[in-house]
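Q: Structure for this?
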Amino acid sequence: MGEFRKVLELFWVYLKIGTFTIGGGYVTLTLVQREIVDKLHWVEEREFLNMLALAQAAPGLIAVNTAIFVGWCVSKGKHRWAYITAAVLGAVIPSIVCILAIAIFFTQYKNLPQVESVFKGVRPAVVALISATVIRLATKI
Amino acid sequence: MIYLELFISFLKIGLLGFGGGMSIIALIQIEVTNHGWMSEPEFLDIVGISQVTPGPIGMNCATYVGYTATGSVWGSLVASVAIVIPSLIIMLTICSIYMKIRDKWADNKVYQVVMRVIRIAVVGLIAFAAYRLCSKASFIDTTSYVICGVVGVCSLLPLLKKPLHIENAHWKRVIDTLSHPILLVVLAGAVGALVY
């Protein structure tokens, strides 16, 4: 039962990460560092950096590759597939749901002036978040 | 059969997409043009929307192309699943090899130095990504610099915990809340909506 709750927790954390990965995949790194490394201590800081190296070297989406590695690390060998599936699904479900909603109902989404305004605010924030992640990771090499 | 074509195309993209996001978009564009799934402006619109919606850009783009090419939700699912399959197989292989090496050589000096160099390189790569984002698209006026500065300072607050000897649980909580990336992104978006 404890295992099942941990899988659900991983799914939930990754759902949050997937939802707020806005403005490029590198924001995922900031979120994973915050939620999985700092807060839950499921992956150690150095392990996280080793994992990023592998996730970037492998083909495919870096966010998905990272999710697979996190699932692997958190599982500690037990129910590995459940953890990996939970992390990957959490990472991609927000993306699929949003895109489908836009494709089906709001085809004019991108042309809304409000969307552009929000993103004018988010873009410089993303630069700051990623730079801060670089500084924090650099102190832990 | 268009679903099979979609599946194979995105399997290929997932397998050959080295370097993440933007290189994957380039591969998707090649497949889209070769199959004539949509016109060039239509595809550019999709890329634009993929950048301003939650989720990894490559995944957004794959989902959208799958939907537009088939006109059905199943197309989206086929494309999304296909792009993840190579990642799964390759990452699982890499993970198991890495874990074996790590357990065996954890005390080996050479291994430790090599991993350290790799970690430095990774931080450098992320720094480069941040540098590339510092473009005119991100910084349009003074407000952009203010947002960037405030978010930067807030996200570095946790680093002050140790040097300032902050032990008080209340202040720790304040710092953790203020430096939360989700909160900062939402606030920056709200500021953008108000100012622009």
